[in-house]
């Protein structure tokens, strides 16, 4: 499982001109799944996302997590994160979880996060989404389990 997290001042997902998910200050999280991902991996990543310290404290040190700043989490399924880009000039998607499996994993991941935190929005798996955000910093981290 791969999550690309971006500390943001705001973020939203539009589909066909309609906003389906939006947050103010928080983090936009692009989520990709690999064939070996399972519930234990989802659990580990959910814990990491909710506790990862990427927000500044009173001394301007990254010591606070999204919950401590009452920030939003915008989860966006993005299968291309798991693509194999090691050779050639075209990505291979053989390293990505199959679509039906990835969709189920995304649903399970959403359930894990929303059962532990209220300020969560998301995109829609398989949709043609337009993602907008204002990256704060910029601060971006690649998390992989």
Describe this entry's structure for a reader.
- It is a single chain.
- This protein has 145 residues and is an alpha/beta fold.
- The protein has a single domain (2-85, 92-144), classed as D-tyrosyl-trna(Tyr) Deacylase, Chain: A (3-Layer(bba) Sandwich).
- 21% of the residues lie in helices and 39% in strands.
- The protein has helices spanning 39-51, 99-116, and strands spanning 2-15, 18-23, 26-32, 55-56, 62-64, 72-77, 120-122, 130-144.
- Strands 1, 2, 3, 6, 7 and 8 form a 6-stranded mixed sheet that branches. Strands 4-5 form a two-stranded antiparallel sheet.
- A hairpin with a 2-residue loop joins strand 1 (2-15) and strand 2.
- The mean pLDDT is 97.
């Amino acid at each position: 499982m791969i999550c690309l997290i971006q500390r943001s001042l705001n973020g939203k997902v539009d589909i066909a001109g309609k906003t389906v998910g939006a947050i103010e200050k928080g983090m936009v999280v692009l989520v990709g799944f690999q064939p070996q991902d399972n519930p234990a991996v989802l659990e580990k990543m959910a814990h990491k996302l909710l506790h990862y310290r990427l927000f500044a404290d009173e001394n301007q040190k990254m010591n606070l997590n999204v919950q401590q700043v009452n920030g939003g989490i915008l989860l966006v399924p993005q299968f291309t994160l798991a693509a194999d880009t090691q050779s050639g000039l075209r990505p291979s998607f053989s390293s990505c979880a199959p679509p039906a499996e990835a969709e189920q994993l995304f649903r399970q991941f959403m359930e894990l996060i929303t059962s532990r935190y209220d300020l969560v929005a998301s995109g829609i798996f398989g949709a043609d989404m337009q993602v907008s955000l204002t990256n704060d910093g910029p601060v971006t981290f690649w998390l992989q389990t």
